[in-house]
Amino acid sequence: MKTQDLQLKYRSLIVILALICSAFLASAQTPQQLFETGNSQYAQNNFEEAIKNYEQVLDAGYESAELYYNLANANYRLNRIAPSVYNYEKALVLKPNDKAIKNNLQFAQNMTVDAITPLPENTFKKWWNQLLNLFSLDGWAIITVVLIMLFTLSFLVYYFGNKTVLKRSFFTIAFVSLGLGLLSLTLAFQAQSNEKNKRFAVVFSPEAEIKNAPNIGSDEVFVLHEGTKVRVIEEQGDWQMIRLADGQEGWIPKADVKLL
């Protein structure tokens, strides 16, 4: 009798464990499913739940421009300035020429308190930066490889060709592709340098005092508010030295900003 009772208890325990495992597996979602669930919640104006689902995708180690864009939109609908700007900026890193991201980022930036006028750029620098921003570092690297290959093939056809017209045409193609390849290579190195040397962050604190030295007792030089984008120049302990687009510099506690 005791043996039968013991067997019955074991069977009951196995059934319970099986039910628990089944419930866990049913509730577990893949990153794609979480993303789609977040989109569904967003469509129903349930922005808090949408944010939770999008953040679970990020926690799982997945990211995309669409994910950051949707996460930014959900925060924007809740009037959360800093998370909106931050996630639009993250999306823009992955898709630097996306018009929708740029437009929505502008809307989010319009909610910020700080009005910062960037330093003026000369015409050449402006054109250079516009050209540089056409593609990412990987994009310029791929273009460079393609152009160098085109130069090599064109030069071989020119060198071994017999017809004068053919040789002239491929010499021109080789010359142009070499020039464009060197320009593309220069832009690739510039993009790489920018990625290494330019670290940006977004202010998350509602109000942050910017100091003239990395300690709490130093003098305040100016105040920033949430959503403002800054460039990080240096780190020292719990402080970061930042520079604004208008050239102002100062020290801010690390806890007040979030690196992009």
From TrEMBL:
Transmembrane feature ranges: 139-158, 170-189
Alphabetized SUPFAM superfamilies for the sequence: SH3-domain (SSF50044), TPR-like (SSF48452)
TPR repeat start and end residues: 31-64, 65-98
Signal peptide residue numbers: 1-28
Gene3D superfamilies recorded: SH3 Domains, Tetratricopeptide repeat domain
SH3b domain location: 198-260
Keyword Membrane included in the entry's annotation: yes
Keyword terms, alphabetized: Membrane, Signal, TPR repeat, Transmembrane, Transmembrane helix
Alphabetized Pfam families for the sequence: SH3_3 (PF08239), TPR_16 (PF13432)
InterPro entries listed in its UniProt record: SH3-like_bac-type, SH3-like_dom_sf, TPR-like_helical_dom_sf, TPR_rpt
Protein name in UniProt: SH3 domain-containing protein
